Amino acid sequence: MVKELGEIFKTIRQEKDFSIRKTVGNVLSKSQLSRFERGENDISAKKLFALLENINVPIEDFAERFHEFNIDPSKKLFNTIGYLEQTGDFTELKKLGEEQLNLFYDDFKLINRLNYLAIKGILATHELGKKLTYEEKRIIIDYLYNILEWQQYELHLFNATISQMDYPNVRFLGKEIFHREYFFKDIPENRDLILRGARNFAIISIRNNDFETTYAILNWLDENRKDESEFKVRVIQKLILIELYEHTGKIQAAIKELSDIVLIYEKFGNTHSYEQYKKELEELRKQVQ
Question: What predicted TM-score, i.e. pTM, was given to this entire model?
């Protein structure tokens, strides 16, 4: 129970881009929170509620995530996949992929093969493994085409393998994102998945010179902002614009957008993202020196 509570809390905190320092406030020490998130020690309900308040998460949302975590193994799997990718632990991610492949060999269940292909797709995106074969891409595409109502699993699968698909299929399947306004607004985790899918779809559209689709996605993001201050949507829009400007040779415009992102993450105290984008900004500036 303690391990699950800590793991779920950590997942939500990272989704909302809160650093440990900003999260603890006056509730706990940073080391106490780290141990709780690793499942090494418990904290009182009062302190848990205070931490949730610090990251702007209603108790009801946390309870729903806890319930879902315990009844849907695929959510737990993709939480682990996302964490390993975010922290750059690709050795463990490869091991997890091998486990899913072995499960498929044991029971020949489609879900285990899809899980393996999702991990293989992520590794291929980072150029750390072989690309998906034609047959493997067909398995994913056929599955996604035949699901009438996408849920979280389908969004995870789409996000993990989009870079491996042919663009006509990406364009067709990507439109599913724009039909999910109710799903987009209901639960923060769904919203994050949709935003990630929109960003991935936009970047692939740019690389295929489909700028009409790119601008349609940017407009859709504008329409679905909760308010003008929602920084996640702002960051995603800027990341899309950076890709667009770099692709079309407008490096100075890309530098301006990336500078804004660096300032945003510095303001919110997200050290990992701040350092990542600061390094990218330095590399981009070298192109105009």
Answer: 0.69
